[in-house]
Design goal:
Layout lengths: L5 H16 L7 H28 L1 H7 L12 H26 L3 H18 L7 H18 L9 H24 L1 H7 L4 H4 L2 H20 L8 H27 L3 H25 L1
Helix pairs in contact: 1-2, 1-6, 1-12, 2-4, 2-5, 3-8, 4-5, 5-6, 6-7, 7-10, 7-12, 10-11, 11-12
C-alpha cells in the first residue's frame, strides 16, 4: 500500500467518477460495468506510475525519503519493477476490454497517454524544470476527462472542463511545493526543480499564484444550477477546499522551508480530496 500510494489511487477513482457522472448517464448494467472496469484500469495506471517512480527515484529517496519501501528494504527494486510492469500491462488489458465490448475508444487513448507520460516523467522529464511538474499536474487532472469517456466518446461538457482546469492548477501548485520538500534529495540526484534552479522562495511564490488561480476558477462552479440541498452541501465542501488552498498559499509564502512545505503538501492533498467530493455533489 505504501509503494502504491493508494490514497492517490482513491482520488483518481473519485475524479473519474466525477467525469462519468457529469456526462449525465442513464445508469444501466452496461454503463456501470464499463465504469467499474475503467476505474480499475485507472487505479492500475496510478499504481504503475508511483511504483515505477520509486524504482527510478532510489537515489533521491536515500537522501530525502529514506522511509520509502525500496530504500527501507521492505521490497527489492527488482520486485517493485516487476510489479510496476505487471500493473501497466493489466491496465492496458482492462482498457482494451472496454474497447472490444463497449466500443469506447477514447478512454484507451487516454490510458496509453497517461502511461507514456508517467514513464517519461519517471525516467527523464522529472529532471526538467516546470515540465516534470506539468506532467504530474496533467496526470492529476486527466481522470475527470477520462471518466467522461468511460460513458461516451462525445466532447466533454464545460463543467467537466472546468473541473479539469481547477485540478490542474491546484496540482501544479502542489507539485512545485513538493519540490521544496525534496530539495536536498533533488540536488544530489540532479533533479532540476524550480526550488533547485531558482530558489525555494521563487517556488513558493509561483505555487501560491497557481493555488489561487484554482480557487478563483472554483467560484465559477456556483453558476451551475443544482437543487437547494446539493447547493448547500457543495458550498460547504468547496468553501472548505478554498480555505485550505488559501491557507496553504499563505503558509508557503510566509516560510518557504522544507518543514512548512511538507505541511502544505499534506494539507493540500486533503484539500484536493474535499474538492473532488464537492465536484461529485454537483456532477
Amino acid at each position: 500500500m505504501k509503494l502504491c500510494r493508494i490514497e492517490h489511487g482513491l482520488m483518481v477513482c473519485l475524479a473519474s467518477l466525477v467525469g462519468w457522472l457529469s456526462s449525465n448517464p442513464i445508469p444501466s448494467v452496461s454503463s456501470t460495468t464499463a465504469l467499474v472496469i475503467g476505474l480499475l484500469s485507472a487505479l492500475l495506471v496510478e499504481i504503475s506510475t508511483f511504483v515505477l517512480n520509486d524504482y527510478f527515484n532510489i537515489e533521491e529517496d536515500r537522501v530525502s525519503k529514506p522511509y520509502r519501501p525500496i530504500v527501507a528494504g521492505e521490497i527489492s527494486a527488482r520486485a517493485a519493477l516487476i510489479f510496476g510492469v505487471c500493473t501497466t500491462i493489466l491496465s492496458i488489458i482492462l482498457s482494451l476490454f472496454i474497447v472490444f465490448f463497449y466500443s469506447l475508444y477514447t478512454q484507451f487513448i487516454i490510458i496509453l497517454i497517461a502511461l507514456l507520460l508517467g514513464l517519461l516523467y519517471n525516467s527523464k522529464c522529472k529532471k526538467i524544470p516546470v515540465l516534470g511538474n506539468s506532467i504530474v499536474a496533467i496526470l492529476t487532472a486527466a481522470p475527470f476527462v477520462y471518466g467522461h469517456y468511460l460513458y461516451s466518446d462525445t466532447p466533454i461538457a464545460m463543467k467537466t472542463g472546468l473541473y479539469t482546469l481547477i485540478a490542474f492548477f491546484a496540482a501544479l501548485g502542489r507539485e512545485i511545493v513538493k519540490g521544496i520538500v525534496d530539495l536536498e534529495g533533488d540536488k544530489v540526484a540532479g533533479v532540476r526543480t524550480i526550488a533547485v534552479v531558482w530558489s525555494p522562495r521563487i517556488a513558493a511564490v509561483i505555487s501560491s499564484v497557481l493555488m489561487m488561480i484554482a480557487v478563483v476558477l472554483s467560484l465559477i462552479l456556483f453558476a451551475f444550477p443544482v437543487s437547494y440541498v446539493r447547493f448547500i452541501l457543495f458550498s460547504a465542501l468547496i468553501i472548505t477546499t478554498d480555505i485550505i488552498f488559501i491557507k496553504s498559499a499563505i503558509m508557503i509564502l510566509q516560510s518557504a522551508t522544507i518543514d512548512v512545505a511538507d505541511r502544505v503538501r499534506k494539507l493540500s492533498l486533503f484539500g484536493m480530496l474535499t474538492g473532488i467530493l464537492s465536484f461529485i455533489v454537483i456532477a
